[in-house]
Amino acid sequence: MEWDWNFTFQIIPRLLPATLNTLIAAGLxxxxxxxxxxxxxxxxxxxxxxxxxxxxxxxxxxxxTPLLLQIYFVFYVGPxxxxxxxxxxxxxxxxxxxxxxxxxxxxxxxxxxxxxxxxEACTAxxxxxxxxxxxxxxxxxxxxxxxGMSNYLVGIFKDTPMLSVIGVAELMHTANAIGAExxxxxxxxxxxxxxxxxxxxxxxxxxxxxxxxxxxxxxxAG
Amino acid sequence: xxxxxxxxxxxxxxxxxxxxxxxxxxxxxxxxLNIDVAEGETVSIIGPSGSGKTTVLRMLMTLESVNDGVIxxxxxxxxxxxxxxRLVPADRRHLRRMRSNIGMCFQHFNLFPHMTAIxxxxxxxxxxxxxxxxxxxxxxxELLEMVGLKDKLxxxxxxxxxxxxxxxxxxxxxxxxPKIMLFDEVTSALxxxxxxxxTQVIRKLVREFRLTMLMVTHQMEFAKEISDRVCFFxxxxxxxxxxxxxxxxxxxxxxxxxxxxxxxxxx
Lengths: 222, 267
Known about the structure:
The complex is a heterodimer. Chain A is mainly alpha-helical. Chain A has 8 helices and no strands.
């Protein structure tokens, strides 16, 4: 089997919109995961025992089962219990929850790394709990958690091909379709790999720069 | 044992600990402690480590709860609140209301590292007291000037020396206009050459502000100089208390005498 440049150039226009879909899926999934992860992390620090025990179990459960299974489950089992979701919606929800569970651990580690004295200063100054979290604790918790958080952005990006199994028209799905039509798999799959590399390498580098920038902006050298 | 829901007005001290006990598991840190602090009084607490000194301040700042007994501030219960004529443990709202009278400085400063000196001093006045930014800034500038840091307003804590950080922390606490100030070993984490700049500020507070102050310290000379009264703690109890001249010059209790000679020998 030889590499066919003509064919390659023919399929690139089909892969580009799919690339955009992959980026949207990764970005949206990450946003959901960031917000949900924070909520899960805060809930695990709740003073209501039932809440934090329940959330802890949930996080453990999500982290101990495969993402692919979760995607299938939401999309195929959902309708059987009356929850009909489009491939996009169920995909985004599943990725958001799955990575939210992982991110909650990253947040938790970050929050725990903030010295106890910071909480005590907030109590002494009578700063309310919400402001204590959002203005005092989290700005100090995020910089140490930042590299963990950005790893999961790249992780989500690389996991978006799993959405192809429920028909989200991202890169993998499109490459599969091209392969099925033309019986040529070498070019589409190679291109998908190249596209992933071209995006994830610069992203990782940019995130490292951003991390340094954030630390500097918050007055925390090193 | 029942505690009064309120101390009689006129007779109420600024702070009263009434049979306060604090335990961590099997360890009793404070054992039925009774102590009064009058308005405007400066009280130093000395004693060996592990004697419960710091716990006194931390309970008063509501950083620790009591196991038994009641703390009163200006005659009103701090650790408890009244419900149907009886005292019940304070809820968060009660604690919030009561601790607005109290400010605290810590051994390790606990400044907010992502905020500049002036932001540290403005955060709570603006967002807790609801002051407008301009007034809060003016007040913060005044206080930072008072502690000798007029030229460091926009510096982050990481760019300040320990002594400077502690002075910012004092200004930050004062910005909330507390009636009671607590100093928890505020010079213990400092290099010897900058201790003076912090004690100088505290001296100024004693002279110029009508604050009630409780200070845990290992600096005997300083305690002697500024205190109205010195309390010697050992094993969760006040073993001896009195004016500094008496405590340092004429100690009666053998444990205090032993403590003082050990501390003074170390210098």
